[in-house]
């Protein structure tokens, strides 16, 4: 469902993107080319700052927002998802938040008030809150990363993890084409 926010902003979706009919996109959401947005995802840019301003929520080209993902933002702050980035099933991305290019965010993970730079991998059930994760860092499953975390304790992304992330992005890009070809059949 595509709908306006109370201020009247309507999502802008590139014609080459696929948005599942069960997904909800509300407000100042920008979806770039060849993006896959899966079943029951919710992407809302509807909360305003005290002065009525809203920054956009941008989903970068060739990225995928999988089943049940929630992307929202506090008080009109920005959420930016980079290109070729995968946000896996039931993850929550709550702004203010910036996720770079070629990032993988695992199942049920939570990002809030943070920056996750290019090439990072955040595995399932992890939390990244109130910090800046530099490029190429690997967050193991169930780990909580916050402003007091010693980032030197985190490993760099391995070639295997990078390959996995790239495969997920590629697979979901193929889903865009497949679902676009049959979208008028359901």
Automatic annotation (TrEMBL):
Belongs to the gamma-class carbonic anhydrase family. This is Carbonate dehydratase. It comes from the Bacteria. It comes from Marinobacter lutaoensis. The lineage of its organism: Bacteria, Pseudomonadati, Pseudomonadota, Gammaproteobacteria, Pseudomonadales. Pfam families: Hexapep (PF00132). CDD domains: LbH_gamma_CA.
